[in-house]
From TrEMBL, chain A:
Any one Gene Ontology molecular-function term assigned to this protein's record: branched-chain amino acid transmembrane transporter activity
Keyword Zinc-finger attributed: no
Protein name according to UniProt: Branched-chain amino acid ABC transporter permease
Subcellular location: Cell membrane
Native source organism of the sequence: Pseudorhodoplanes sinuspersici
TrEMBL record, chain B:
Major site of localization recorded for this protein: membrane
Membrane topology, record value: Multi-pass membrane protein
Cellular component aspect of the GO annotation: plasma membrane
Protein name as annotated: Branched-chain amino acid ABC transporter permease
GO molecular function: transmembrane transporter activity
Family matches, as Pfam families: BPD_transp_2
Listed GO biological process terms: amino acid transport
This protein's UniProt keywords: Amino-acid transport, Cell membrane, Membrane, Transmembrane, Transmembrane helix, Transport
Length: 327, 286
């Protein structure tokens, strides 16, 4: 990390911590929690998309598996912590199986299989009335009390989400910066060379799939804690596509991109749905516009613009500054 | 006995509908390497077009053909004006078709409201056929017959005509096909038109069985995907066999284990992916 990125990080962290004091209104604090939850989901998907080059359209399945497991166990009377841990294990196990299946096909086949798997999870949730309540969904009785802290109010839940988000972000940052992350990016760019060098590229991709599934499940749990309710609508293809769009819109090659994307999409969705009902059309239009005109996403796009602007205004310092490491 | 006969007929009729949907999907994927994620939306759009044509007092079969043509036109527009903007970017093309499917679904909701719209079967096909003291739903038999006609027609088109030979060459090796002077890009448009029109017609034919309702697209798309994963991409025979496998599993799944109807589809997909990753009759790598 360079000094400027540390300063940025500190500023952003302080801003996030002070946020409830700045925006006060409960509605907006809840929206901020939503942004953080979707940022976890988008970041986890982006481990596959941006760093592994694997486009998945079934990420909402983890919201489903983790969420339903957690709710059902809580209703059955288990301790919330037990419910959460079992939910994470089960959902990550699903990711392990889904990964084995999806990675049987490269490229677009991968995308089709993840989509089909995601829809199967949706279909099971939709049809299994006796278990999941079908279309009506089921409610989580109450938010858990992690270590005795009450997180029922909007503000305290926001801080809880922020802590989970920080842990997830740190975990994923470590993952991307680790030698394993480097081998993942190598597999993305030069799969044959990596195989020649003796790397088991299949295992690298599969482990990434599982880890992405784990963080996706964490995001899914938070989603359920936030809404206290889960129905098949949270598992639809639209939901998976929204998460994917967040990652692409912000810029899939960085860790900041999906966060920015999650913030923008969540805000647009909240604002637009208050005024018009045409969210799905808008989602489709954003999808097409982003892919046709901004294939790299906002963050890398803006960064390139910023660098160009800097270069124009500060001609005497040319190549001396080391190129900023790609996050 | 009656139960099994009815369910079997329902299954094969549904398999026929799936064939109309997935044959085009499979050919488009085989030729252009694009899983056209708007294909479910094409099916739904066809059903709604059919509903409107029927409510304008058109004959059922004319409505089916008209809806097919209308959806085919939408397909051409998508291919010419959107997919062509992203040459060589298969991933972008897929995601654009996904975005388009959301727009189509939302516009359908806006125009035809959220209520399911019934498409009545033609009057003369409504009374069931009676043989040996058993009743057979006439309309479903006709749907099956039409799907078989479409399958035979597509087979002759693909295997016995010059254009079919060019499409097969394009599926097997697009670069080489271009090299020997086959107008691959014009074929793209043709196949897209054909696939979209078949899906649209399938939507109308499926109307009396499934109705036109919001979410029909999201119900049909994964089934088409599973058909192609099972049968193999780019293969007509694969789409045919896969459609009937999925038709049977899905229908009997709903009838016997309604809670797990989708899960029943999961198992054959797992088996095929484990042992035959190219699908049963795959021509190209998925």
């Amino acid at each position: 990390m360079t000094r400027s990125s540390i300063i940025w990080l500190v500023v952003c962290a302080l801003l996030l911590i002070a946020l409830p004091r700045i925006i006060i209104h409960e509605f907006y604090i809840n929206m901020a929690s939503q942004v953080l939850i979707f940022a976890i989901l988008a970041l986890s998907l982006n481990l596959m998309l941006g760093f592994g080059g694997m486009v998945s359209l079934g990420h909402a399945a983890y919201i489903g598996v983790a969420g339903y497991t957690c709710i059902l166990l809580t209703i059955a009377g288990y301790h919330p912590l037990v419910a959460a841990i079992v939910a994470l294990i089960l959902s990550t196990g699903c990711a392990a199986i889904f990964g084995m299946l999806s990675l049987r096909a490269p490229g677009l086949g991968f995308l089709m299989i993840t989509l089909a798997l995601g829809q199967i999870v949706w279909g099971v949730a939709y049809r299994a009335n006796t278990l999941t309540g079908g279309d009506n969904g089921i409610s989580l009785p109450a938010r858990p009390m992690p270590f005795g802290f009450d997180i029922r109010s909007a503000e305290s839940f926001y801080y809880f989400t922020l802590i989970v988000f920080a842990v997830a972000l740190f975990g994923m940052w470590r993952f991307v910066r680790s030698p394993f992350g480097a081998s993942l990016m190598g597999t993305r760019d030069q799969p044959r060379r990596m195989r020649m060098l003796g790397y088991n590229t299949w295992r690298i991709q599969w482990l990434t799939f599982v880890i992405a599934g784990f963080w996706g499940s964490v995001g899914g749990l938070m989603y359920v804690y936030y809404n206290l309710f889960l129905s098949p609508h949270a598992l639809t293809l639209q939901q998976s596509a929204e998460i994917l769009l967040m990652a692409i819109l912000g810029g899939a090659t960085s860790l900041t991109g999906p966060i920015v994307g999650a913030a923008i999409i969540t805000l647009i969705k909240n604002v637009v749905s208050t005024y018009v009902e045409r969210w799905n059309s808008l989602l489709g239009i954003i999808f097409i516009v982003v892919i046709v005109f901004m294939p790299l996403g906002l963050v890398p796009g803006c960064r390139a613009l910023w660098r160009k602007w800097q270069a124009r205004h500060k001609p005497p310092v040319p190549a001396a500054s080391a190129p900023e490491p790609a996050e | 006995m009656q139960f099994w006969i009815i369910q079997t007929l329902n299954s094969v009729a549904f398999g026929g509908l799936l064939f109309l949907l997935s044959s085009g999907f499979s050919l488009i994927f085989g030729l252009m390497r694009i899983p056209n994620l708007a294909h479910g939306a094409f099916f739904m759009l066809g059903a709604y077009f059919g509903y409107t044509l029927l409510s304008l007092k058109f004959n059922f079969w004319i409505a089916a053909i008209g809806a097919g043509l209308g959806v085919g036109l939408v397909g051409i527009i998508l291919e010419r004006f959107v997919l062509r903007q992203l040459p060589g970017n298969a991933q972008g093309q897929v995601l654009v078709t996904l975005g388009l499917s959301f727009i189509v679904a939302d516009l359908c909701l806006l125009i035809w409201t959220g209520d399911p719209m019934p498409l009545p079967a033609p009057q003369e096909l409504r009374p069931p056929l009676r043989y040996f003291g058993l009743a057979f739903p006439t309309y479903r038999l006709v749907v099956l017959g039409l799907a078989l006609v479409a399958a035979v027609g597509l087979y002759f088109l693909m295997e016995r005509t010059r254009i079919g030979a060019m499409i097969r060459a394009g599926v097997d090796d697009p670069e080489m096909a271009r090299g020997v002077g086959i107008p691959v890009s014009r074929l793209f448009t043709t196949v897209f038109l054909l696939g979209a029109a078949l899906a649209g017609m399938g939507g109308v034919l499926g109307g009396p069985i499934l109705n036109a309702y919001p979410g029909l697209d999201a119900d049909m798309l994964p089934l088409a995907l599973i058909v192609v994963i099972l049968g193999g991409a780019g293969s007509l025979l694969g789409a045919f066999v896969g459609s009937f496998i999925v038709g049977f599993l899905y229908n009997f799944g709903i009838a016997l284990v309604p809670d797990l109807a989708y899960f029943v589809l999961f198992l054959p997909m797992v088996l095929v992916l484990m042992f035959l990753p190219q699908g049963l009759f795959g021509r190209v790598q998925l």
